[in-house]
Amino acid sequence: MATELKERVQTLIDNSINPAVAGHGGYIELIDVKDNTVYIQMSGGCQGCGAADVTLKAGIERMIKEEIPEVTEILDVTDHAAGQNPYYSPSKG
Q1: Domain housing 19
Q2: Is the model's pLDDT at 93 over the cut of 60?
Q3: Looking at the chain, which terminus has fewer C-beta neighbours within 10 angstroms, N or C?
Q4: HEC assignment per residue over the chain
Q5: Which residue has the higher pLDDT, 51 or 74?
């Protein structure tokens, strides 16, 4: 069952979510699915983007929960301060 749920989430990411965020240079990677919780990592233009949380909650989470209601939570495991080309760099204070 867990494998089937993971495959359904991956298909949704591949067919609907990644094409939507690709316009902003972003990419969403499915890390794992455990106990109906989806773990994703944001990269490309999404990594470090000030709107990444909005994208996660209003876009990705909404789409996944609408299509796959058994998913209870989506967690972003991205280190938004790291990466080769984050969208913005935190100001040095």
Answers
A1: 2-76
A2: no
A3: C
A4: CHHHHHHHHHHHHHHHHHHHHHCCCEEEEEEEEECCEEEEEEEECCCCCCCHHHHHHHHHHHHHHHHCCCCCEEEECCCCCCCCCCCCCCCCC
A5: 74
Domain count, the chain: 1
The region of weakest confidence among 30-34, 51-55, 77-81, 82-86 is 82-86
Domain assignment present for residue 90? The answer is no
- What CATH number does residue 17 fall under? 3.30.300.130
CA–CA separation, 64 and 83 (whole Å): 26
Look at the pTM and tell me if it is higher than 0.70. Answer: yes
